[in-house]
Specification:
Blueprint lengths: L5 E5 L7 H13 L2 E7 L2 E6 L6 E6 L8 H6 L6 E7 L3 E6 L13 H17 L2 H17 L3 H6 L3 H37 L29 H27 L1 E5 L13 H9 L13 H5 L5 E2 L11 E8 L2 E15 L2 E13 L6 H13 L17 E7 L1 E8 L2 E8 L8 H11 L3
Helix pairs in contact: 3-6, 4-6, 6-7
């Protein structure tokens, strides 16, 4: 169907009364609007020819293995066809007046108790986004090594907020539909359990006619619903804003050729805007500390393929996020010829300038846990330094360095024959330049 042929209407406030719900749908059919589905608190129609049409709402079988459409087919012998369902608790059927009989194949207190129990499950389902958020965080923490602060500093947290916001609002939408279905169930229970003797065309499965009770009231959502709606909406906004901020502020470059020749690409508007805001960064290489300087090999070139022929990417990436207004990550694979053959080395740097110096020590610990499993049977030995507020160096086999100074944190990972401890002056000079001093 074309979109222009569809008409979406908000359901009336008294839609939880089954008689009034059926009458409203029949009035729309007389105007040429044919119901095709229901979502949240909206009914979707398609335009057709005006016609006299009968509608009926009946409860679903909570224990049945059949889907809504198959359950609706059971009413075919009474002249009804399946249209749609509400909250997987109520079926909406359509028929031709005079050719359909109003019956309810399922009845009894047990049926309605099971359906109401299903509704309570929907209420608990509102908390599933929080459970999802918790599981995701625990996954990152225990399996990926990310701590809470590192998630926010790297900007990954916007994904969690976005997922929680979208998932929560979808759950709330489903819950709204379930609330309407719950009101209809109460009305159906009263209508068929205590029948109105004046309506001879409406009867229960046993054909009994008794007095009608009050139908469902459709009370507005409670305080819990409103509070959760606000939380999920805020999460969605934070997630979208964080994603836009992360994508728009990211500056990433890939390098080949000589290491010493890597420079800023100011033709990129984001790079130019960043350098205009932080001019001290123009004085250093975009890879922060060129590997050729560390190895004292000016002719070093970037290696693009490893010994297996797989691609290696030499890059620098600069980003900004509220917890870490400036952060940079670089990766360099160097190769050069020496008197005894070809040699290789690798250097990775992560730099964070944080919003507050109080965040520096916790972030440094989280980086140590991520890269070297700190607090898991091994604690690093601090190294006394006049350059940094705190310094940890691991120069055996794989070389790691973790340092913090004021509100700055640096992580260096090096594979080669040098010792990072011998290059502390270069690293301190680099951090001073990055801080704008």
């Amino acid at each position: 169907m074309k979109r222009s042929e569809k008409v979406v209407k908000n359901i009336p406030a008294d839609f939880t009364n089954p008689d009034k719900a059926e009458r409203w749908l029949e009035e729309n059919a007389e105007q040429g609007l044919v119901l095709i589905r229901y979502s949240g608190r909206k009914a979707v129609f398609i335009k057709g020819e005006p016609a006299k049409t009968a509608y009926m709402v009946v409860p679903m079988d909570p224990d049945g293995m059949k889907g809504p459409r198959d359950q609706g087919e059971e009413y075919k012998e009474f002249g009804w066809e399946y249209v749609t369902q509400l909250g997987r608790m109520v079926l909406i059927l359509r028929g031709m007046p005079g050719k359909c009989e109003r019956v309810q194949l399922l009845a009894g207190d047990t049926l309605f108790k099971k359906l109401r129990k299903k509704q309570r499950g929907r209420i608990w389902g509102l908390f599933s986004p929080f459970i999802f958020w918790l599981i995701w965080f625990l996954f990152f923490y225990f399996f990926q090594g990310y701590g809470f602060l590192l998630l926010f500093a790297k900007g990954v947290a916007w994904l969690i907020f976005l997922a929680m916001g979208v998932g929560g609002l979808l759950q709330m939408w489903s819950f709204r539909e379930a609330r309407v279905a719950d009101g209809l169930l109460e009305g159906i229970r009263n209508r068929f359990g205590l029948e109105n003797p004046s309506d001879g065309n409406r009867k229960n499965g046993a054909g009994t006619s008794v007095q009608k009770k009050r139908c469902g009231t459709g009370n507005p959502p409670g305080l819990l619903y409103r509070v959760l709606s606000i939380i999920f909406l805020i999460s969605l906004v934070l997630g979208m804003a964080g994603g836009i901020h992360y994508g728009a502020g990211r500056v990433r470059s890939v390098y080949t050729g000589k290491v010493s020749e890597a420079g800023w690409d100011e033709s990129d508007f984001r790079t130019k805007a960043f350098l205009d805001k932080y001019p001290s960064w123009k004085e250093i290489s975009p890879v922060l500390l060129p590997l050729s300087r560390l190895e004292e090999q000016p002719e070093m070139e970037y290696q693009t393929l490893d010994y297996r022929g797989e691609k290696l990417e030499n890059y620098s990436s600069i980003n900004r996020f509220p917890f870490a207004p400036i952060q940079a990550e670089t990766m360099q694979y160097g190769i050069w010829n020496s008197g005894d053959g070809t040699r290789e080395s690798t250097l990775k740097l992560e730099y964070y300038r944080l919003a507050s110096p109080k965040l520096a020590a916790p972030l440094m610990r989280e980086l140590g846990r991520y890269y070297m499993n700190w607090n898991k049977g091994w604690m690093p030995q601090r190294v006394a330094s006049g350059c940094f507020d705190e310094l940890v160096i691991h120069d055996r086999g794989l070389h790691y360095l973790f340092a913090r100074k004021d509100n700055q944190v640096l992580m260096a990972y090096y594979i080669g024959e040098e010792n990072l401890e011998d290059h502390l002056p270069e690293l301190e000079e680099m951090m001073d330049m990055l801080s704008g001093k």
